[in-house]
Write a structure and sequence with these properties.
It is a single chain. This protein is elongated. It starts with a helix and ends in a 9-residue tail after the last strand. It has two domains: about 80 residues, no CATH class; about 70 residues, Alpha-Beta Plaits, CATH 3.30.70. With about 180 residues, it is an alpha+beta fold. The relative contact order is 0.12. The protein has a four-stranded antiparallel β-sheet, with no helix packed on it. A two-stranded antiparallel ribbon has the order 1-2. The longest helix is centred in the N-terminal third of the chain and has 15 residues. The chain is built from seven helices and six strands, in the order ααααββαβαββαβ.
């Protein structure tokens, strides 16, 4: 799947941060900048090859303006940090990249929810994520999907603390109304 450059950069940034675990091993025959932030260093080199330095910094400003990242000053350098909005974007990217497989039992996953109005933002975010996972809606709060994405749905429910508002069912078949 081809990703837009914004999504690809955020995904690479997220993965770079996730991979920094063995701090001592990172210092072997590398510059301090590369040792401390190897993923970011590689990502920057990759994107600088694609665009000149000025375009790279315009791109960083664009991501800051969109609210996906923050640039923090850490003497003597600067660090890029994913914001909450950036993390949500990365979650959507990971859902989009997930390989979809039909359920082996041929059943469909049905999600029914009644999320209160005071959680409207979460409700809209949940709907958007359902759509990314391949769900189709029967009504605004009833969605169905033939894909095996139960774990992802449960992960979303836990992440957004929506378990008490959402019910999931496995159903035999769905008769979707076709538009004429």
């Amino acid at each position: 799947m081809k990703l837009p450059i914004t999504d690809k950069f955020l995904w690479n940034l997220y993965n770079a941060v996730e991979k920094i675990s063995d701090f001592q091993a990172l210092f072997a025959r590398r510059s301090l900048k590369e040792a401390c932030f190897p993923g970011l260093y590689k990502a920057r080199l990759f994107y600088q090859k694609k665009a000149d330095r000025q375009q790279f910094f315009k791109f960083i400003r664009y991501l800051k303006m969109k609210g996906y990242i923050k640039v923090k000053s850490l003497e003597p350098n600067e660090a890029i940090i994913l914001t909450q909005k950036g993390v949500e974007k990365v979650l959507k990217i990971s859902l989009r990249l997930k390989e979809r497989k039909r359920r082996k039992d041929g059943k469909w996953l049905m999600v029914i929810f009644d999320i209160p109005e005071n959680k409207r933002r979460l409700r809209d975010l949940f709907r958007e994520n359902l759509q990314i996972l391949g769900f189709k809606y029967l009504q605004k709060s009833i969605w169905v999907c033939p894909w095996d994405v139960l774990e992802e749905v449960q992960g979303l429910l836990i992440k957004y603390d929506l378990e008490k508002y959402v019910k999931t069912f496995l159903i035999e078949e769905v008769e979707l109304e076709t538009k004429k």
